[in-house]
Design goal:
Elements lengths: L1 H11 L15 E8 L10 E8 L20 E2 L13 E2 L5
Antiparallel strand pairs: 1-2, 3-4
Length: 95
């Protein structure tokens, strides 16, 4: 039922497909979702895989270690806010 509704509604908003873009349409990060078995988030059990897509290469999903601080970073220079201590990289340690 859902897919026919989406296709019908999308046909009225074709011009909306041109909205957005930028780097977000080329570089994506997915944490993996929809496990076949509840609460089992192992890679083989996920409908949508985890990983990174770089430069729009959807045929090549790069593995990402979600616990490695050198792989997942947030930079203040690429955000909407400022950080008073002068650092551009925010490091968050796990509890």
């Amino acid at each position: 039922v859902y897919l026919p509704d989406v296709l019908l509604i999308a046909s009225y908003y074709k011009d909306w497909a041109k909205i957005g873009g930028g780097l977000s349409s080329m570089n994506l990060l997915a944490y993996g979702e929809f496990p076949d078995n509840p609460n089992d988030y192992s890679a083989s059990n996920l409908l949508l895989p985890r990983g990174a897509i770089i430069n729009g290469r959807f045929d090549e999903i790069h593995p990402v270690d979600l616990t490695a601080p050198d792989e997942i970073q947030e930079f203040v220079t690429h955000s909407w806010y400022t950080y008073g201590n002068g650092l551009s990289l925010i490091l968050i340690s796990a509890p």
